[in-house]
Amino acid sequence: MLSVHGSFLVACVLDVIGAYFMNPWLLLPYIIIDVIRLSLTCWLFCIVLITIKRAVNLGVLIMYAILLSFVMFVLLYLWGCVFSLFHAIFIVRTKSYRSVFGDDPLALPPKSILNKSNEKAKVERVKFYPSPNFNTEADKLKPVVEVNKSVAHPFGVRQSRRIKNDYVNELSVGHG
């Protein structure tokens, strides 16, 4: 048991060093050992819940199951953070990423990049088209298409609703 915890301690130290120096291969022992630890912990939680189900009340058993589920979710989240860092280090080391952000992945982007991105984001002209829901006056509503009242609607919509939906505010025409 001591050797298991000792190997996990070594993997954690390698994980911290790998995160500091941005070396993904030093993160790999922690990722592998923690997957094994998570699967064994999940198996252990299931065994514990199965063995205590006759000794405790059903409400207490449900409470333990929820508590152990939260513990597993937290452990899985922490493993996922390290796994995401493993992938992010490979992205940071690509030529395209370095051409934009430079060699230091933790530094802010240069001001020239920030200024160029802000210049492209300017809006030249804005048009406002009012919605037909705001103008409810009946004289502004005109039929766009004449409705054939003898044809049944394919989806079973009532005729009064079809006629109401075929009227459009003339201010809203041309939204595209």
Q: Which terms summarize this structure?
A:
2 strands, two-stranded antiparallel ribbon, disordered C terminus, mainly alpha, 176 residues
Structure characterization notes:
The chain has 176 residues and is mainly α. It folds into two domains: 105 residues; 35 residues, no CATH class. Helices cover 61% and strands 3% of the residues. It is built from six helices and two strands, in the order H-H-H-H-H-E-H-E. Strands 1-2 form a two-stranded antiparallel ribbon. Helix 1 packs across helix 2 and helix 2 runs antiparallel to helix 3. The longest helix has 35 residues. The C terminus is likely disordered.
Rg calculated over all Cα atoms: 31 Å
- Cα(first) to Cα(last) distance is 69 Å
Shape field:
flat
Which strand-content bin applies to the residues?
A: under 5%
Q: What is the N-to-C succession of helices and strands?
A: HHHHHEHE
Query: Mean pLDDT score, rounded?
Result: 75
The neighbouring-strand order within the major sheet is 1-2
Percent of residues in helices: 55-70%
Number of discrete helical segments: 6
The number of strands is: 2
Structural class: mainly alpha
Largest sheet geometry: 2 strands, antiparallel
- Ranges where pLDDT stays below 50 over 5 or more residues in a row are 143-151, 161-176
**How many structural domains are formed by the residues?**
2
